[in-house]
Structures are given as structure tokens and as C-alpha cells.
Specification:
180 residues, alpha+beta, five-stranded mixed β-sheet, four-stranded antiparallel β-sheet, 2 helices, 13% helix, globular
Length: 180
């Protein structure tokens, strides 16, 4: 009985280390995008000097994409840096999904990956509580402030090497997928 209980506790306890479910909330909400996070989460594990694509949008907002990594589990994680290039605080989020089941409205949950070759669109994954597996807490972005972002999608088929990353109200960026 004790070995079954130990297995049960181990299985339950392991979920707290899953970077794809909690880190979006922690990295964007706790550090305020100032880069003083302890290094947890997908957006903090990438080389930010590498830029694989860039999106420009309204309100002087821009996104530099740093990686789009396909992992063995059948997912693609996209990381980037969101920057307010304007002179005013960005308070309204136009990037969240219109889905009523999505809980966080201050996120990039409206982002999609588009396989233009096969004409398929991939939406950001959601956890069992309806939260996107993406950066949340994107309100009050001050002028000249940058914040790390990430989003996780179902992976396109292995033959797809290039996709478009789209975020509402921004120009799309064509990016290459790398293997993780």
C-alpha cells in the first residue's frame, strides 16, 4: 500500500514542475518583464540575440521571435520578446482569443501557427482550467518596456519545416521550425 501511495504522490507532485502550464503566468506577472526572473520557463531558456522573425503592430508594439522548437511530444514552443516601442503605456490587449472558455484575457492566446503549404491553422493549446499554454498578464506594458513571451501549439506534420506565426493586429512572420 505504501508503494502505491508513494507512486501516487510522485505522479501528482511532478505536475508542479511542468513549465508549459505555470511559467507563462509566473514569468510575465511576477517579474513585470524586467528580466529578473530566476530562469524558469521556455522564454528564459532561449538565445534572445537570435531573431527568426519579427511582427510589427498597432500602438507601436513589436514582437521579435527567437525560437520555434518542435519537441518529441508533438508540440511546438515559440518564444519571443514583446516590446512597447511607443511613448505611452499599452493597456489594452488585442491579442487574446475570442473564445469564451479562455480564462485569461490579458494574454497572447489569439496567436496561431499557420501551415500555408497544407492550409492548416494551429491554435495555442489550453490546460484543463481553460488557460492558454502561453504568456499571460500582458497589461500595463510601459513605454520602451520588453517582456519575454512564449506559446505552445500542436506540432504540424514532420514534413512541415516553415510556418507563419500570426498575432491579431500585427503583421505575420514566416519562421522555420527547429527540432528540440
Amino acid at each position: 500500500m505504501s508503494s502505491a501511495m508513494a507512486f501516487s504522490l510522485t505522479a501528482c507532485g511532478g505536475g508542479s514542475d511542468d513549465s508549459s502550464s505555470d511559467d507563462g503566468k509566473d514569468s510575465s506577472q511576477t517579474d513585470g518583464g524586467k528580466g529578473d526572473d530566476a530562469g524558469d520557463g521556455p522564454a528564459n531558456e532561449v538565445d534572445t540575440s537570435k531573431v527568426i522573425g519579427e511582427l510589427k503592430g498597432s500602438n507601436d508594439m513589436s514582437v521579435k521571435l527567437h525560437s520555434a522548437v518542435r519537441d518529441e511530444g508533438g508540440f511546438v514552443t515559440v518564444t519571443g520578446t514583446l516590446t512597447n516601442d511607443g511613448s505611452k503605456t499599452f493597456s489594452y490587449n488585442v491579442w487574446s482569443s475570442a473564445e469564451t472558455s479562455v480564462r485569461s484575457k490579458s494574454s497572447i492566446s489569439g496567436a496561431t501557427l499557420v501551415d500555408t503549404k497544407n492550409k492548416k491553422r494551429y491554435m495555442i493549446l489550453r490546460d484543463t482550467d481553460g488557460e492558454c499554454l502561453c504568456t499571460t498578464g500582458l497589461t500595463g506594458i510601459k513605454a520602451k518596456e520588453s517582456r519575454a513571451i512564449h506559446a505552445q501549439f500542436p506540432a504540424p506534420s514532420k514534413d512541415v519545416k516553415e510556418v507563419q506565426f500570426q498575432l491579431p493586429s500585427m503583421t505575420p512572420a514566416t519562421i522555420k521550425l527547429s527540432e528540440g
